[in-house]
Amino acid sequence: MVMDTISNMIIQIKNAGDAGHDRVSVPYSKLKNSIALVLKKEHFIKDFEVKEKPARPNGRSGGGKKVLAINLFMENRIPKIKGVKRISKPSKRIYKKFSEIRPVKNGYGALILSTSQGIMSGRDARRAKLGGEALFSIW
């Protein structure tokens, strides 16, 4: 069974906001770090940092792993992220030319793409005239 780590990350962020939490931790990867950087640039998250997960007191494994600690944008305890939609999945990849990239929710959302220049928003991809794999949209 293939695990979709990008879907897990964006749903954890959305669910944490819906539950009223202003912070969420997700397992670290370079891809998730790049996605968090774009979400911060697009003002969907406040900040994030890479932390080392502390070892368990009973000596079991689980320590030494990295996590992304993400601080969410909250406006009067209401999360900035209203919804997310996974576009390209492990079972079906969706690619977009730069001319096919459209604004999400009349410009209030963002399309996150994986391009040859790295992870970037749809706005930046159109400016750079780059297409790529449409990972997800967020609003």
Automatic annotation (TrEMBL):
Gene Ontology molecular-function annotations: rRNA binding; structural constituent of ribosome
InterPro entries, sorted: Ribosomal_uS8 (IPR000630), Ribosomal_uS8_CS (IPR047863), Ribosomal_uS8_sf (IPR035987)
PROSITE patterns assigned to the protein according to its UniProt record, in alphabetical order: RIBOSOMAL_S8 (PS00053)
One Gene Ontology cellular component: ribonucleoprotein complex
SUPFAM superfamilies, A to Z: Ribosomal protein S8
Keywords for the protein's UniProt record, in alphabetical order: Ribonucleoprotein, Ribosomal protein, RNA-binding, rRNA-binding
UniProt cross-references to PANTHER family, sorted A to Z: 40S RIBOSOMAL PROTEIN S15A
Protein name per the record: Small ribosomal subunit protein uS8
Originating species: Candidatus Zambryskibacteria bacterium RIFCSPLOWO2_02_FULL_44_12b
Gene that produces this protein: rpsH
